[in-house]
Amino acid sequence: MNWSEIEAQMPQDSATPFRAQIIAHLRDCSGFIPEAILKKVVVLGDAAGRRMLWGIGSTGMQNFYLTAEVAALLPPEVCSTLPIKLHSARKTYLDSYEGPALELRKPEDLVLLDALSGDPFPRALARWIQRVKARFPNWQGFVPADPAFEADEREYKDAAADKLRQALAAAQDDRARLEALHGAMAGINLLQWQVYWPLSPKGDCDHAAMSLAVSALIAAVPDAQGHPAAVASFIAAWMQHCPNPTRDSARQVAEFALMLLNPAEALLLRRSFLDAMYFEATGLRFPRGEAAQEYTAELGFAHRIRDALRDKGLAPRDLMDVQSLLWVAFNAKDVAVTPPTEPISDVRNAAMTTPTNLILYGPPGTGKTFATAYEAVRICLGDAVAVPLRVDRVGLMTLYRKLVSEGRIEFVTFHQSFSYEDFVEGLRPTTDKAKDDNLESDTPATGGFSLRPHAGVFKQISERARLDTGTVAEIRLDRNRNIFKLSLIGSDWRARLAKSLEDSRMLWGFGGKVDWSIAEYEQFEAVKARWCSDHPDANGRYADISGTWSFRSGVEIGDYVVLTVGKNQIVAVGRVSGAYEFLAEEDEFPHARRVEWIWSDADGADRSAFYPEKFSSFQPIYKLDDASIDWDGLESIVYNRDALPPTAGARDFVLIIDEINRANISKVFGELITLLEADKRLGCLNEVRLRLPYSEPRFGVPSNLHIIGTMNTADRSIALLDTALRRRFTFQELMPDVSALRAALAERGLDANNLDGINLCRLLTTINERIEYLFDRDHQIGHGFFTGCTDKAGVEDVMRHKVIPLLSEYFYDDWSKVAAVLGDRAGSGQTYFLEAKRLAPPDSLAADDMGEEKWRWSVRSDFDFAKFQAP
To answer: CA-CA distances (angstroms) from residue 803 to 73, 168, 796, 821?
Structure first.
């Protein structure tokens, strides 16, 4: 067989793009070729006769079941043991299957397939170099230098290093050295401001103690051998003398100082991209341990890259060049293998962009709503994609609808009843009894309802934009999954934790020595009936029943589990990766599920960092309330970083607000008025976060969310736009445009200067000139009224049913002015659109009593376009 045949027989589902990437990877570098395809399994073999099975999952997870010979090619840390019952036909191909397997969940895991044909490092390095050259086409190495690469990646670091050295040379004491280091960090974008804030003059660290720590760190700069110990000492001081400290913030500050002052022997790697690049190069997770050990491993990784680059003649000058290469490669991962069905690719710069706050305003019919579609596509995909589509309405709207379906564009129309609760968040009634189920009581849940926070359209798209990782391999938790709390009970919980981590399992001791794996126990009532047959006094809220069912069936593969101690401490977080297992040989904990542990710490983390309510001791396992989970807080614990700002690779998102001035702006936006400003967005210099009135977690607006509004200047039923909002937006006027009218008709092969004998351009221009003279320029008639016309009947229909009623509204039913706009005059004997009949005074009134003649105006049954005849 060949790969084309395999692809033709693959199922078409949500996992199709990922499988396409796997096939491309296997074809290019694994050495394994397809031998057969069975039901949901592909048989692969290599030239040495080794075999493995690819289990074609319908979800993101794709499993490879290996023989011992194939597993021997891989580091033992990357293999797991998955339960599988091989059909006899499959055993023909894999008769020696013993359980080792590869679990591929995301594109970054493809590096594990590289390891099947040897060390994945050379291929990873080749990809990194390819990405750098894609970003900088003239880059051929570090010496001679490429000006574009130097300007973007090196010069500002060298300038910061020079500034820091000069400041340190002038420093007379420890406090001055701390201020010099803080000034260097604040003057460059290598670190987020939250990292070094404790050292700022307004920071809340013990400045005297940290001044000594900074001086000790700087004193260690010349001794490269002592750098790991210096980093460890600085971290220890930081943890002792800074409030709410994190090891990673201290590590970043220490590495920043060492790299700028000794770039030949030190470098700074943010943890997120160190983890991603290390995994891509080795197939292994970056080793965690003591601070000195971690920094030593980091240096070893950097030295290997530096030496490999030198072997290729690329001449890195120091480890700062290594850091630059890794950073560019990390932020250009879209150059890697792309699946055929990849969603629309971005061509915008992955770096943080300045948010767009734009309002398009003008009279009705000037194309404001269509213009928002163009601006939204341009923001999301860039000028190179959008500009050619400006004259291709069908192509533009196709891309627009595609972006809407991907959730990158949202559209909402404001109106007088629109409120803060619709736009940001409000309370909605719910009968969800999830919280009742966790009460320490055997009393059934009530049938009442409660009010729960519900996110409005703005908060929804803000969160979507903030959590987007784009093409960057940024690690985030899947916020669509459930989280289950599992208690570690008893004084020996540390031993149970260690066993769970060692075995990659979560364990359950309730439910007796019953094998709950058979299919009928999928249902809660079946579990209850089985347990009550031996324990008639039990009820459904017993842990042996409800807890066992939750452990066996309630927790789905992909859900998260947090191991807890007491009511306030979590000690491990993992993602469930396997179905229920019955361990007959175990007496105390005979029930288990496979778990991929993401984070663990026997010292624990405080529950309040991500969940407001104390854990219940009544039920050892239950699902946490979705609405109460602070995912950012949990990510901060798991990944030891600030999870709130968007990542560097986050794509752009757009919220379109039609008729933005029809709502009570100050009421709808509330405190968001402040958050909309460009410098107040998440990750920006003056970032602002606040607590919304109904939900606990702090909220901020990401810089990759852009807002486009439209405003009809002719709507007299509303007040002027809120001054505070006006200051935060830029305004772009859209007026009637005869050239746009010509272009719209030309797309359909029609001539706006001669449409069935009518010169539409002259008609539109004449009407608007008269409106501006009699009223103002904001009440003109837009070209959009006529773009759908195809003949004279169509023009008549627009004039009769749209233009004339609108003019009547503009002039408050003063038909003499409507007639003046249309060129009609009472008593002239020649009318074009309106006709007037002189009214005779009633019997009781004399003509002189009224002071002037009275006319009854009416719309003609047929229009005369003689004044607008085409030449």
So the answer is: 77, 73, 10, 11
Which of 507, 508, 697, 502 has the alpha carbon at shortest distance from 600? 502
Residue 758 to residues 37, 179, 643, 832, Cα–Cα distance (Å): 67, 76, 62, 13
Q: Please state, in angstroms and as integers, the Cα–Cα distance from residue 131 to each residue in 128, 270, 271, 301, 347, following that order.
A: 5, 19, 20, 19, 14
Contact 413, 659 (CB under 8 A): yes
Give the ranges where 676-823 is alpha helix by DSSP (H).
Answer: 723-728, 738-746, 760-774, 792-798, 804-810, 815-822
Residue type, 213: A
Q: Which of 81-85, 386-390, 713-717 has the lowest mean pLDDT?
A: 81-85
pLDDT tens by residue, 161-170: 999 999 999 9
Bridge partners (DSSP) listed for residue 65: 53, 101
CB 297 within 8 Å of CB 91:
no
Parallel, antiparallel, or unpaired for β 705-712 and 357-362?
parallel
CB 681 within 8 A of CB 466: no
Alpha helices by DSSP H, 267-318: 271-282, 291-311
Q: How far apart are CA 149 and CA 145, in angstroms?
A: 8
Of residues 408, 436, 272, 248, the one with CA closest to residue 344:
408
Specify whether the CB–CB gap between 714 and 656 falls below 8 A: no
What's the pTM value of the predicted model, to 2 decimals? 0.54
Q: How does DSSP classify residue 273?
A: H
8-state DSSP, 644:
S
pLDDT digits over 484-524, tens only?
999 998 888 888 898 898 888 999 999 999 999 888 898 99
Q: What are the percentages of helix, strand and coil residues in the chain, rounded to 5?
A: 45, 15, 40
Is 597 in contact with 576 (CB distance < 8 Å)? no
Average pLDDT rounded to a whole number, residues 459-465: 89
753 residue type, one letter: N
575 contacts: CB under 8 Å, gap ≥ 6: 481, 558, 559, 560, 561, 595, 596, 598
The separation between CA 192 and the C-alpha centre of its own chain, rounded to angstroms, equals 19
Is residue 276 within 8 Å of residue 105, measured between CB atoms?
no
Residues in the chain: 871
The structure tokens listed for 20 are: 């396409």
Output the six-digit token pair for 304: 């290997």
Beta bridge pairs of residue 749: none
859 - beta bridge partners?
Answer: 834
Distance, CA of 68 to CA of 90 (rounded, Å): 16
- What are the start-end ranges of the H helices in 331-468? 368-381, 383-386, 393-405, 420-423, 457-467
Q: Name the residue among 515, 606, 598, 602 with its Cα closest to residue 568.
A: 606
Q: 362 in the Ramachandran plot: left (φ > 0), alpha (ψ -120 to 50) or beta?
A: left
Distances (CA, A) of 280 to 342, 542, 641: 21, 46, 21
Distant-in-sequence, close-in-space partners of 144: CB < 8 Å, separation ≥ 6: none
The encoded tokens of residue 10 equal: 């693959």
Range name among 37-41, 172-176, 363-367, 797-801 with the lowest pLDDT average:
37-41
